[in-house]
Amino acid sequence: MKDLKCEITIDEMGNIFAVRPGRRKDVPATFIGSHLDTQPTGGRYDGILGVLSGVESLKRMDEMGLETEGGVGVVNWTNEEGARFPVSMIASGVWAECIPLSKAHNLKEVPTVASLPTAASAPETMKSALEKINYLGDVPCSYKTTPMAAHFELHIEQGPHLVSAGQRVGVVTAVQAYRWFRLKIIGRDTHTGTTAFEHRADALYAFALMMVRAREVAAAKGCLASVGIIEVAPGSVNTVPGQVSFSLDIRGPETALVAEVERELRSDFDKIAATEGAGIGKPCRVEWTLDFDSPAVKFHEDCIDCVQQSAHAVVADAPVADTKALVRPIMSGAGHDSVFTSKRVPTSMIFVPCKDGLSHHPEEFSSADDCATGASVILQAVVRYDRK
Amino acid sequence: MKDLKCEITIDEMGNIFAVRPGRRKDVPATFIGSHLDTQPTGGRYDGILGVLSGVESLKRMDEMGLETEGGVGVVNWTNEEGARFPVSMIASGVWAECIPLSKAHNLKEVPTVASLPTAASAPETMKSALEKINYLGDVPCSYKTTPMAAHFELHIEQGPHLVSAGQRVGVVTAVQAYRWFRLKIIGRDTHTGTTAFEHRADALYAFALMMVRAREVAAAKGCLASVGIIEVAPGSVNTVPGQVSFSLDIRGPETALVAEVERELRSDFDKIAATEGAGIGKPCRVEWTLDFDSPAVKFHEDCIDCVQQSAHAVVADAPVADTKALVRPIMSGAGHDSVFTSKRVPTSMIFVPCKDGLSHHPEEFSSADDCATGASVILQAVVRYDRK
Ligand SMILES: NC(=O)NCCC(=O)O
Ligand SMILES: NC(=O)NCCC(=O)O
């Protein structure tokens, strides 16, 4: 981006912005954005493709000597995954002023991170981690300080719909709702060899029942419920665990559906907890903490139109009778930084197919052709939007 | 023990032996033994009472100027709990030549130990831990090098039978069987937000079903099955875990029953694993490793008789009509070092009541009276055995 003489800013969340100036200085740039962070066992496309498509778009515009009205920018958002610091899309959330900076800065890394410190030293916070890598910028993280005309994002679908239908481009119109919780089950440590089942308040057994129940309830409502992190104390072969902490990720196509699943699980988990340990009059109890709430989102019609027109144009040469059928509207199952940019500026996204719909896995794959198609669509969409 | 002029030896498993000599030098000493190690959230009685009762017995014998035929010894066995190094009774197992020294020395600490090293440094082994605290002795750990005439052990019951029946002493005649396994479930990491349940091979969901099933199967056969340790990878809120490792502790009053539970669970766990992920043709799979196998044990009639006579003598003054009813034969639910000494020398144990039958918990409690009763019984039992 420096070679292309872009203006580069790094804000206090470590977000990196690069802008290729347009003819007019009085309007904000249109951005292509995504993220470079990944999962402990993530692949090489989730997020990375989006940022690289922005860089490539700016290079291509330079090669073509293309002038735009407003500037065109690329943004790399920090910690979109929420893998190391367990709130997803946190830096675009701060930019949108939906998440307080202090909450983001003080967020602690999850204990399962490979760089796990010894019990004696404190876990890293987002702020200390940014300082360590020299990416704690001094520009305020806000849509007011770093404004955008619009935000476009290219991403692999991470799901199976495009690939199984043989389609080339997804015009993303919406993102499903999700909520992240941390739950704690408190039971009673006791001996595994001398304590009859009816005398136990086994927090891990209660967890097992809860996880089974979570899938049942979510499935019945067309939603998802998943546990990715679990920690058990005291952690000894022959002690029944008296404490379990775990993450719960609930998703669904509508905000209200996610709320319904949550409501039902709160009640069911209480019942499960009340049963385990009832025999000793000291039943388990369960505590919920909401860490993150992302209601369902609908993207902006203007942006969706630009993407759709560009998609049809890019696939027009494909050797099939009906090239329009290669493009489809789609809802995103995953969250993306576009969720937060959409709260402040016109936003939409482009999906390209990925192998087996697999993501958050080292085998995540999207062919060079599919990546190039997506990059062509996003470049055209940005230019179309600029000319509106 | 040094003050009492005992002969002290420390063997290569860190077992500490102290012997008060008897009249005869040509016969081995009768030992009172237990352990001083505990659980991450253990109490102040499990094991500790047994060692202290030995120390107290030797002091008492000195005060009384009591001479014995053979010597009388106290032994503190290393790592009886298997909490930090996850094989219980390992040091008495090496002494009995039932567990190879090299296996014991190379055993790694569990990752949940508070002193968890960073991922970069290796976990401590039993040998390195003994070296660090200067308890890697040079005396071979074997019943041949440190012989015993017999082994007696005083312990809190750790279960509810004595306390709920208002009884004072348990004459332990047997120990139930148990097996410890490490299991690994291999599934597939994938995105929690974009992966339908039928496209998942969720190792943690499979675990939850297995844990629920384990209790069902064990309960139906009058056995126990417990999980105390679980680790999940990769450990991210929005990645379906592709790998789960956990401990499984199966116990039952007969060796054959434990084997039956194991057989049934091996088959059921395979079925659960085969179902989770079947939709993508890459089902979960589950691998078992047997870490420890302790068949059911019956103690020695001579030792049981000495304990029973001593128990009746000690409670004879109690203000109840039938003092004999204060003493009962009992089977131990937990394992003890006496399990391994019983393979080589006449052995038996004494139980005293503990509050709520609770153990492996900070609230573990046995009254001073009950502790004193147990100590009196073990001292008498040893003297009776010596005089046989
Ligand atoms: N695209 C993506 O994987 N985002 C991470 C946030 C989420 O869990 O949906
Ligand atoms: N007594 C006791 O807690 N022993 C530990 C070994 C076992 O798990 O039974």
From TrEMBL, chains A, B:
InterPro entries linked: Amidase_Cbmase, Bact_exopeptidase_dim_dom, Peptidase_M20
Keywords: Hydrolase
Domain of life: Eukaryota
GO molecular function: hydrolase activity, acting on carbon-nitrogen (but not peptide) bonds, in linear amidines
SUPFAM superfamilies: Bacterial exopeptidase dimerisation domain, Zn-dependent exopeptidases
Family to which the UniProt record says this protein belongs: Belongs to the peptidase M20A family.
Name this protein carries in UniProt: Hydantoin utilization protein C
Organism: Penicillium subrubescens
